[in-house]
Design goal:
With 133 residues, the chain is mainly alpha-helical. It has one domain. It is built from five helices and four strands. The strands form two sheets. A two-stranded antiparallel sheet has the order 1-2. α2 runs antiparallel to α5. The radius of gyration is 19 Å and the shape is elongated. It comes from Gracilibacillus salitolerans.
């Protein structure tokens, strides 16, 4: 039995680079990756069954500033905020008037899954620029 671990050294090296990077580089990478995901989500919001009556859903998707190594992409919380109903479409909801469960029409999870590779590429590119590799 012959086991091969090709690329494992490269993966370990990339992980070490992330730890060495200053927070400003990480934040810049998070902003760029967050912008990519926000734009992808805006493109996908009406492609999975949601109708563009007012266009409010598309414009309500925002990106937060990086904080503690995290960035959030989505709508602002609260019922009074535009696009509050996107959560219900993403995960499904029970319609009281119709007395039935309305199945989900996900767009955010689809956008994220389609963008993961590009998000990682952005992160690696920013780290390589900073470390001049």
């Amino acid at each position: 039995m012959d086991l091969r671990f090709e690329g494992l050294d490269e993966l370990l090296r990339e992980t070490e680079l992330i730890e060495l990077a200053p927070s400003r580089v990480k934040n810049r990478a998070l902003r760029k990756a967050g912008d990519l995901l926000r734009d992808r989500m805006k493109e996908e919001v009406y492609n999975h069954g949601l109708e563009p009556y007012s266009g409010e859903a598309q414009e309500s998707i925002v990106r937060t500033e990086p904080k503690k190594g995290e960035v959030m992409v989505g709508t602002e919380g609260g019922v009074q905020q535009p696009g509050y109903y996107l959560y219900m479409h993403e995960f499904g909801y029970y319609n009281v008037m119709a007395k039935r469960f309305i199945p989900p029409k996900p767009f955010a999870s689809i956008s994220y899954e389609l963008s993961k590779g590009q998000i990682l590429d952005i992160y690696v590119e920013e780290l390589r620029k900073e470390l001049k590799l």
